[in-house]
Design brief:
- The protein is an alpha/beta fold.
- It is built from six helices and twelve strands.
- The chain has helices at 2-9, 26-29, 38-46, 75-86, 174-181, 210-220, and strands at residues 15-16, 20-24, 51-54, 64-66, 90-93, 130-135, 138-142, 156-163, 187-196, 199-204, 233-240, 243-250.
- Strands 3-2-4-5-10-9-8-6-7 form a nine-stranded mixed β-sheet. Strands 1-11-12 form a three-stranded antiparallel β-sheet, with no helix packed on it.
- Helix 3 (38-46) packs across helix 6 (210-220).
- The longest helix has 12 residues, at 75-86.
- It is globular and about 60 Å long.
- It starts with a helix and ends in a 10-residue tail after the last strand.
């Protein structure tokens, strides 16, 4: 049946509708680490369709580009990212910043700013807290580790504030509750957005998550052509000659009804 549909509909002629891309540094994606890449996992879990941006031939370019890769990147590929931004693209980094041309030799063509600190989670989970990150009118919750910028850097700052959400396991010990409460209300600069040429470069120094990916799209005004209301249902929107085709795949085990 699928072969019949493929032939009748000429599926290769369909155009995928998406405004989002993810970097594809080939040397990195040969390695096992790429299988658990935080940015790739976050955008998949968010259910947002995307393309891969090839850093060697600069295809396929989209208005929003999320960096998926290691902390090293060959100089020519760093230049490709810089060109993408200056030509009008929005480039976003999470906590992986390519500050080297190879694993040992520094190279920072993009002029990325290193954080001054990076607090980690407490050893005991009930002493942990959540941090609310605000992107324009959007906000989402994250947990340490995250970047902290203490010095003044160019661009628009991105802030996070420690909050008591009651979603982390509580403790019956008053001393532990007090220790955790000490950080509530603390505010940190966790990233920044800097205009470059006709585009912008954003460092959002928090864990890549579906909530962060969706928040970035809303903040930067990047449209999402189709989005499923259920995490286990993935959707893609295609177009050909003015006709639109919605493809939905249920990755779960049972039958579901998913709003799109």
């Amino acid at each position: 049946e699928m072969v019949k549909i493929h032939k009748e509909e000429d599926i290769p002629s369909w155009k995928k509708l998406t405004s989002t891309a993810v970097t594809f540094p080939l040397r990195y994606h040969w390695q096992k680490e790429a299988l658990s890449d935080p940015a790739l996992n976050a955008i998949y879990q968010a259910g947002i369709e995307y393309e891969f941006f090839n850093l060697e031939n600069h295809h396929i370019s989209k208005p929003l580009l999320l960096y998926s890769g290691p902390r090293w990147l060959p100089e020519a590929q760093q230049q490709a990212l810089l060109d993408y931004v200056e030509q009008g693209g929005h480039l976003v980094f999470f906590t992986s910043l390519p500050l080297y041309r190879d694993p040992f030799e520094p190279c920072n063509l993009l002029g990325l700013h290193r954080p001054d600190g990076m607090p980690d989670e407490p050893f005991l989970d009930h002493l942990a807290s959540e941090t609310e990150v605000t992107l324009g009118g959007c906000s989402f919750l994250t947990r340490a580790p995250f970047f902290v910028y203490s010095h003044t850097i160019p661009g628009e700052p991105i802030w996070g504030e420690r909050v008591d959400t009651r979603t982390i396991m509580d403790t019956r010990f008053e001393e532990n509750r007090y220790l955790r409460s000490l950080v509530f209300g603390h505010r940190y600069q966790v990233g920044y957005r800097e205009l470059r040429g006709r585009g912008s470069l954003t460092v959002l120094g928090v864990r890549a998550s579906p909530q962060a990916v969706k928040g970035l799209h809303a903040w930067l005004g990047i449209p999402v052509p189709a989005l499923s209301g259920l995490a286990e249902v993935k959707v893609s929107l295609f177009e050909r000659d003015g006709t639109y085709y919605l493809v939905a795949i249920n990755t779960g085990d049972g039958e579901v009804v998913a709003p799109v």
